[in-house]
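Hey, I'm writing a tutorial for new members on how sequence and structure tokens pair up, and I'd like a real worked example in the thread rather than a made-up one. If someone can provide the structure for the chain below, I'll link this post from the tutorial.
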Amino acid sequence: MPPINHDLPTGMTDWIENVGGGRIRRLERHVARREAWVVDVERTDGSVLEGFLRLQRDGDGGVDPRRLERETRIIDALGGHGIPSPEVHGWNADLRCTLFSRDPGRSDIDNVEDATQQRAVMEDFIRIVARMHRLDLDDLGLDDVMQYKPTTARECAMAEVDLIADQWKAFLRKRPDPLTTFGLAWLDRHAPTEVARVSLVQGDTGPVNFMFQGNRVSAVIDWELGHYADPLEDLGNIMVREFWNPSGGLDGLFEMYAQESGFPYDRFRAQYYAVHQNIRGMIPIRYVCENAHPRESVAWYLCYRYIGDRATCEMLSEAVGVPISRPEFPEGEGERSVLADSALQAQRNDVVPGLEDPFAASRARDVGILIECMDRRRRYGSVLEGQELEEWASLLGERHATYDAGLAALESAIREQRFPDEVIVPVLARKAYRDEWLHAPAVALYPERSWSPID
């Protein structure tokens, strides 16, 4: 068999074969936001271990070097307590990699055409989440890898937010963002004063972060953000995941959760935690957009960032009862670029059709999206910046000479709480709508996303 091409760290394939008890016969990069590899190991008896490799390279975890270790421990513990989970074949602390079992099911609940099946899977998932939230934390034995254990209602709501804000404080100081500044303060002001209990929450739970077979969930996956918190936090997470991956809506599911878990459901609390998920989640996504490693799929991060910002503003509008509206966008195509047009022509017609490897094809598509985004910034960026500077001048009492200066002044005014929510939220929303429109080629990866109603 010819050598398998890869760029995995030295010693990792030897470790995989040792854990799997055979020889690697398949090793393919998985198309996903986080780096992962599909692995098949053929054993001497002819059987095949179908594995899923996660690794955490230097710098991949941002400021959380134990992210993958914690995820591995959580998955292993949950499997031992009756929560459908992948099997952990092995964890290597030196290489910082985990070989999980590869679930044969599907994760694309949003693509299920049978509405009855889709609803059945979602209800099964809600039952699992309710059961998971009732697990005794001491029995799980995870305290040594968790970053904190809340003792008050405020800590349940804000400990993860405070942790992420502290981890990324250097970036936030260097690149302050008005929506992030407002969102962090808003979350603190509206933090719940009571919680039913402290639970293990997934921190990013919902559609696509579980596997299913037929009408049943076969494995809850992706625990990189797992932590201890208010169990209702996961309801906000589910709202966010269903926003990105529409799965038949959420009608009645949170009432079902309350019945299954025994914990009371509160509509504002779910909305609060939807904002919570977006605000804390967008901090590292903003960092990647501005400091991306070449290995990262920046097109996807641009999509997450700009749809996510718009979604945050819409949920804030709904939660606090402040109306928002879309601004006017530039008309026409702007000045075309022969260089951008030529690059896109070659990418779409000469490069992509000749690629057979799914990961390479995905990366090539990302290249086209980035070219389009750069070209739209060139054509429309200054026009939109001028619109915002005029708008901010009427609010701040001064038109700043540059966009960065105006942005800094707006962020400072928000940090000083100079304006009430009903003034600031519409301003932030119009900025988010403009950013989303400007990056339309990346946004098209998740077109026409909207919040599903909740009871």
